[in-house]
Amino acid sequence: MAGKRKGKTTGGNRATSTTDGGTSNLCLDERPILPQIPKTDIAKETQRLDTQVAKCKAGVAWINLLEMQDRLKFGKYNDRPPNDAEINKLIGSFKSSGIVAMKDISAIPIIIDLRRIKTGLTLATGFNEPDDVPELELVDKEDIIVASGQHRLAALCKYHQSVEDELASLEKKRAKIAGLATLSYADGSMVHKATSPTSICFIPFLPHFIKTYLPHLVAPEKPKLPREIQVP
Fold it and tell me: Count of H helices and E strands in the chain?
């Protein structure tokens, strides 16, 4: 019977023994682990690309994203799939800080042939003077290639829809209240509606703003109000 071959040591590799006294084909690499030096400096490469992009910047203008959203085409330069967490984060920012449009950090870059821009339209060089930023007018209705910003557009559309839904809900409540002869509170007090047509404007905001708006909306026919919301 032929005996088993002993493991050989080659370079930094050494065959390992098995429990039955034989050897394994697996080799342990005993060479020291060395740090890998990156071939490209990411920071410098990013700066280089930003410089190249700045050279291609034709100017800035504004567009109505909600009206033109069907013409905006994403994915050619940034094919990230939509992320609901990122969209909701942006909506939270809209609600807390408002929608800040005239800033480089919130601008959406589009790739477009300058010949498509309406003759005579001069693009602004930046957002230093927001009132001087023109609306982008094109000579055609073709698609517009967008380099990035799909999450911002998705967040804007979702936020806009939530505002529209809230407005529709308030309109229904206003119409319902408008059909009542009197308004009642939890304490049982009653408010008779004024005869002025403009008085209907304050109905959805009762009782929080009644002191502020009531004198302007129902004058000169001011109704008799309960003591706790009596206009001084």
Answer: 5, 8
Cα–Cα distances (Å) from 35 to 32, 38, 40, 43, in that order, read 10, 9, 15, 19
Average pLDDT over residues 117-142: 92
Residues 6 or more apart whose Cβ sits within 8 Å of residue 68: 144
Q: What are the beta bridge partners of residue 145?
A: 73, 111
Q: Are strands 72-73 and 110-111 parallel, antiparallel or unpaired?
A: unpaired
Band (pLDDT 50/70/90 cuts) for residue 188 is low
Query: Which of the 8 DSSP states describes residue 117?
Result: B
| Residue 3, CA distances (Å) to 7, 14, 17, 27, 198 in order | 13, 20, 15, 21, 107
Q: How many CB atoms lie within 10 A of CB 214?
A: 22
What secondary structure letter does DSSP report for 132? G
| Residue recorded with tokens 């404007």 | 201
How does pLDDT run across 85-108, given as a tens digit for each residue?
A: 999 999 999 999 888 888 888 888
Residue 157 has pLDDT above 90, yes or no: yes
